[in-house]
Specification:
16 helices, single chain, globular, 32% helix, ten-stranded mixed sheet
C-alpha cells in the first residue's frame, strides 16, 4: 500500500516551512518566501518535497496527500510593518476619538487607520453627508471604504446598508474611480460598537493580502488533481477552508500553531511550565504554558480569562531585522525586515543593510557553505562590509564586536519581554523551561536563558519549522458566537430557565455548524461540539469564559456550572450570588478530525553527514573560542555533549554556550542546561546517555 502523507506548511515573512509526514518519517522543507506571490513559494516547497520523496511529478505527489494545512504570519507582519490597505473609515458621530485611542490587536499599540482618514457622520445621516464623506476619503487616497455606524433608532445593519447603497450609486463598480465598500455588519453582528468596528477594520486592512494568494494556491492544487480543500490554520487552534476564513482568524497563526506544538511536547516530556519564544525572520512571538495548559491571552495589551490568542507578546525582531543607528549611536532593530529578497547582505542578492543574520555569520554561527543545507552560499565579506560601513565604523570597534553588541541588543529586548511575561503570569523562573523555536531560536536560546534567569532550554528537531509542526496536530474547527443579555444569578432555582435559554441558542448555532461542516465534507456524526458561556460582572465589565461540561446544558449540570463560575471569581460557586452577573454571550465550537503528524516520526538518519569538525565563534570578552560542530541528523542518539559547540542541520543552527551541557534524546530533541545546574526540573529525558 502506498504511503500516505500529511502536508503542513507555514508561510512566514522570510521563509516558508513545510513538513511532509507519514506514520514512519518526517521530511522538513524550508524555502524562501516569495512575498510578491505566495503561491510561488508554496509551489517551490511542493516541488522540493517531490524531489526529496522521489515522486515523478507534483500531481503524483499530491495523489498521496490526505490533508494540506497552511498557516501564515502574513497578517502579523502586515501589522508590524504597516503594509496593509489604506482604509477610509466612516464612523458614527462621536466615536472617532474613542476608536483612535483604543488600538487594534495583536499588541494594542495603535490603530491601522490614519486620523485624517476617519470621518464621522450623524446617526440619521443624510445622503449628501455620506456622499461627501466618501468623496473626501477617496481624494485622500483610500484604497477601500469601511462603514461602521451605530444606527440610532434604525439599527446599525440598516444604517450601514443604506450608506453603502448611497456610495455605490455615486461610485458605480463599472466606472473609473469606483472603490470597494464594506461594512461592520457584514462580518460581525455583535452590538458593542468599538469591538465590531475594530474587527472589520483589521479584516479589511489585511484581507486582500491574505485571501488572494490562498485562492491562487487552491487553483494550483485543483490543476494538479488534488481533490480536497486547502485548510487554512487559525490562531484558535483549528483550520477551515479558505472561503470560511477571515484575516483576523489567521493573525499570528504560524506562531500560535507553534504554541500548540509546544503544548504537545510539554505533555510528552511532562514539562508543566514553559515559555515559547518563536524567533523567525521578521518577528518574535512569546507563548505561555502554565500548569500543563496553554494560556489564552487577550487580543489587546492586557491578558484576561476570555479566549483570545495563545500569543502573549509580539516583538518586531527576527533574523532579517534591519540594524540601524540613531543620531546618538544607539542601535535599533526592526520592525522593518529585508525578507528573503534582497535578504541580508550576506545573501549576495543586493541587500545593502546590516541584519541580525549578518551578525550571526560574523560571529561564526553559520557555515558559509552549508546554509539551507548548502543551497545558498553565504558571503561573510559582504556582511563585514555592510557592518563596517553602517555600524562598526561609527562605533569605532571591530566588526565582530559590533555584531556581538547587535546580538546582545536583540537578546536584551526579547529577554526583557520574557521577564515581563514570567511576572505577569506568575511563573517561577527556576521551574520554567524555555522552548526556543523558529529559524533563529537556536542561535539565541542559551543567551536568552542567561539574560532572563531561566535554567532550562528545550530545542526540538522540528523547531526550525515549528509553526508547521504545530499545524500538523490541528483539526477542522468552526467557532460560532451569539450575544445574549440575561441576568445570571447562578442559583439552583434558576437552572431550568437558564438552561432552556442557553440550549435554544446552542441549537441555532449547531444548525449553522452542520451547514458549514457539510461544505467541508463532513457528516453530522463526525462532528464534536463544545460550548462556553461568556459572563460579565456589571460593575467591572470584563468578559470571562466558562466552559460547559457538555454542548447542551441540562438542569442536572447546573451545579457544576455554578462551581466553575465561582472559581472564575475566586469563590466556590455559592459565593457568587448577588454580584450582578450577566450572561452576555454563548460560544459553540464544532470540531471534525483530520489526520495528524506523529511526534515520534523521525527525520531520516544521515549517514553521510560529517560531524566533529570545529569552528571558531566570537563570545563575551572579545574572545574567539573553538566550538565542536555536530551535524544533527548524523548523530547517533541518545547523546550528551558540552558547550561550546554548534548543532546544525539543513534548516537551522543551535549554539550551545560555554558552561552549558546538551542532552539529545531518541527523538533528537535537546535539553540544554548549565553544566553546574542542579537537576530539579519537572519532566525530562528518560533515556540513558553517552558522551
Amino acid at each position: 500500500m502506498a504511503e500516505r502523507y500529511s502536508v503542513d506548511m507555514d508561510i512566514g515573512g522570510t521563509f516558508t516551512d513545510a513538513i511532509f509526514s507519514s506514520r514512519r518519517s518526517m521530511t522538513l522543507i524550508k524555502v524562501d518566501t516569495t512575498r510578491h506571490d505566495l503561491s510561488v513559494c508554496f509551489r517551490k516547497a511542493l516541488e522540493r518535497a517531490r524531489e526529496t520523496l522521489g515522486f515523478e511529478s507534483v500531481r503524483q505527489c499530491l495523489s498521496s496527500v490526505r490533508v494540506i494545512r497552511l498557516s501564515t504570519s502574513l497578517s502579523t507582519n502586515l501589522i508590524l510593518e504597516r503594509k496593509g490597505l489604506c482604509i477610509g473609515l466612516i464612523l458614527a458621530a462621536g466615536w472617532k476619538e474613542a476608536f483612535l485611542g483604543k488600538g487594534i490587536f495583536p499588541d494594542g499599540s495603535g490603530v491601522l487607520v490614519e486620523p485624517e482618514m476617519v470621518i464621522e457622520v450623524g446617526a440619521e445621516s443624510e445622503e449628501s453627508e455620506v456622499r461627501e464623506a466618501a468623496y473626501r476619503l477617496i481624494l485622500r487616497g483610500a484604497d477601500i471604504l469601511v462603514i461602521s455606524l451605530d444606527g440610532g433608532k434604525e439599527g446599525f445593519l440598516q444604517a450601514e446598508e443604506r450608506a453603502r447603497a448611497v456610495i455605490h450609486r455615486y461610485y458605480a463598480n463599472h466606472f473609473i474611480g469606483s472603490i470597494p465598500v464594506v461594512s461592520g455588519g457584514q462580518l460581525s453582528r455583535i452590538r458593542e460598537y468599538l469591538p465590531r468596528t475594530s474587527r472589520i477594520v483589521f479584516n479589511t486592512y489585511a484581507h486582500h493580502a491574505v485571501s488572494g494568494p490562498f485562492l491562487a494556491i487552491e487553483d494550483y492544487l485543483r490543476e494538479n488533481g488534488y481533490p480536497h480543500p486547502l485548510l487554512l490554520v487559525h490562531a484558535d487552534g483549528g483550520t477551515s477552508r479558505v472561503s470560511k476564513s477571515t484575516a483576523e482568524r489567521t493573525i499570528s497563526s504560524g506562531a500560535a500553531a507553534g504554541v500548540f506544538g509546544a503544548l504537545r511536547f510539554s505533555r510528552i516530556y511532562g514539562v508543566k511550565n514553559a515559555l515559547t519564544v518563536d524567533i523567525g525572520g521578521t518577528s518574535t512571538e512569546l507563548g505561555v504554558i502554565r500548569g500543563g495548559e496553554m494560556v489564552w491571552c487577550g487580543r489587546g495589551s492586557e491578558a484576561d480569562s476570555s479566549r483570545g490568542l495563545p500569543i502573549a507578546v509580539t516583538i518586531g525582531i527576527g533574523g532579517g531585522s534591519v540594524v540601524r543607528l540613531d543620531d546618538t549611536g544607539r542601535v535599533h532593530l526592526g520592525p522593518g525586515s529585508v525578507g528573503a529578497f534582497p535578504g541580508p547582505a550576506c545573501y549576495g542578492l543586493g541587500g545593502a543593510e546590516p541584519t541580525l543574520t549578518d551578525a550571526f555569520l560574523i560571529l561564526g554561527y553559520f557555515d558559509e557553505g552549508y546554509f539551507l543545507g548548502g543551497e545558498r552560499r553565504l558571503k561573510r565579506t559582504l556582511a563585514e562590509k555592510v557592518f563596517q560601513e553602517r555600524v562598526a565604523g561609527i562605533w569605532g570597534v571591530s566588526c565582530e564586536e559590533a555584531a556581538l553588541r547587535v546580538k546582545e541588543e536583540a537578546v536584551g529586548r526579547i529577554a526583557e519581554e520574557i521577564r515581563t511575561v514570567i511576572a505577569r503570569f506568575g511563573l517561577d523562573p527556576v521551574n520554567t523551561a524555555l522552548f526556543a523555536v523558529g529559524g533563529c531560536g537556536g542561535c539565541m536560546g542559551c543567551a536568552l536563558c542567561e539574560a532572563a534567569g531561566l535554567r532550562e532550554l528545550r530545542i526540538f528537531r522540528q523547531g526550525s519549522v515549528f509553526g508547521a509542526f504545530g499545524t500538523s496536530g490541528m483539526d477542522v474547527l468552526h467557532r460560532y458566537e451569539e450575544e445574549v443579555n440575561l441576568g445570571l444569578e447562578p442559583s439552583a432555582e434558576r437552572g431550568l430557565e437558564v438552561c432552556d435559554r442557553i440550549n435554544g441558542v446552542v441549537l441555532a448555532l449547531q444548525r449553522r455548524a452542520f451547514q458549514d461542516m457539510a461544505a467541508e465534507g463532513f457528516q453530522p456524526e463526525g462532528i464534536q461540539f463544545e460550548s462556553a458561556l461568556e459572563i460579565t460582572v456589571e460593575a467591572i465589565g470584563t468578559r470571562w469564559s466558562c466552559d460547559c461540561p457538555t454542548a447542551f446544558l441540562w438542569p442536572g449540570d447546573w451545579n457544576a456550572v455554578r462551581k466553575r463560575i465561582g472559581r472564575l471569581f475566586g469563590g466556590d460557586g455559592a459565593e457568587v450570588d448577588g454580584r450582578g452577573l450577566r450572561l452576555v454571550g454563548i460560544a459553540l465550537t464544532a470540531v471534525a478530525r483530520v489526520p495528524h503528524a506523529e511526534p515520534d516520526a523521525l527525520v531520516p538518519f544521515d549517514e553521510a553527514g560529517s560531524t566533529g569538525l570545529e569552528r571558531r565563534i566570537y563570545g563575551q570578552g572579545g574572545h574567539w573560542v573553538d566550538a565542536r560542530v555536530h551535524r544533527w541528523d548524523a548523530l547517533k542518539v541518545p547523546l550528551k555533549v558540552s558547550g561550546p559547540c554548534i548543532l546544525e542541520s539543513r534548516e537551522t543552527t543551535v549554539v550551545v554556550s560555554p558552561g552549558y551541557e546538551m542532552a539529545l534524546d531518541k527523538r533528537r530533541n535537546a535539553r540544554i542546561s548549565r553544566s553546574d545546574a542542579v537537576a530539579c526540573f519537572e519532566g525530562g529525558l528518560d533515556e540513558d546517555f553517552h558522551h
